[in-house]
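Re: [help] complex structure
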Amino acid sequence: MFDPLWKLALGLITGIIFGILLQKGRVAKFQVIIEQFLFRDWTVVKIMGIAVVVGAVGIYALLPLDAVSLHIKPLVWLGIVAGGICFGAGMAIFGYCPGTSVAACGEGRRDAMVGVLGMLAGAGLYVVLFPQLSGLLKSWGDAGKITLPEWTGTSPWLWIGGLALVAVAAVAYSLRGRSGATHPVPGKSPRRQRST
Amino acid sequence: MGNPLQSKSWSPYLVGVGIGVLSWFTFWSADHPLGITTAFEHTAALAIQAAAPGVAETNPYFQEESPKIGWEWMLVVGVLIGSIISSMTSGDHEPITVPPLWKQRFGSSMGLRLSVAFWGAGLMMFGARLAEGCTSGHGISGSLQLAASSWVFSIIFFSVAIGTAFLMYGRTGSDV
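Output below.
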């Protein structure tokens, strides 16, 4: 029922840092999430993109030292596709994702607090339907706990290098637009330039 | 410069680097990826077990999974505390029920906003459990491990969210 105390404390400290980062990153705000999906605000993509590239470099560098191990979720096709559709629609309707809605509660946002209750209801529905769902999900194909490099027979560093190049190019493009150089980025309103 | 906690926002790039480095720490220290939704599933399962022990006995979920108050549960509590600390120190406190963008499109009814938030969040969480992950578990932690499942999930959820947002707000002219 309970993890050991040191592990609970470790989770709490990690969570506090994560919560501060989410709040300071402005992703605990309805407006920032929705405007990302409307291509008016790129905060969510910037944060997620950089986190993925920085995280990947560290995890794949630590892997040969046996300091970390991978935790890959299985590619259960029906679960991933149906889950992705429900998640994407639900997130756009709600206006927060699971982690940022918890952070939004910390800002005092009442719609996020009600959403947390809705998330508990959704999780409860999954638990209650688990006997029916678990059989159904497995019947549609399970590619297992596979990574993109394994899937394609390539080196992970090829993928990480590619992602890093895309990230550097995107950051350079974005910063050039912001500094008001000769080629301003279309759609960047003055309001956003002040806020970034 | 002063205390960085007093600042209302940090550069998204800096926050991205911070989350990336934090994920190194979680894999190394707790052997866990950053993820939020497992804690919700376990909380709901524990509540069902307490409220209806008969249902729990016949449901194989409780034999296959062991819901608990663990690292991931405390992570969620920590996110709330961290956000409160960050929000209080910077004065970025927004006790609102109907966000302005929503109000502009759907009116100022609190009942409408709260019921849609409840069902939207429920649908989102149900999807997260079908796929075994969310924006943190798949979108960040899974993608950075180059998991095939996480990249497929992320591409689908982002595309569907874009489509849904344009259907809902596409006719709303400009920024609020």
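Chain B touches chain A through 132 residues (CB under 8 Å).
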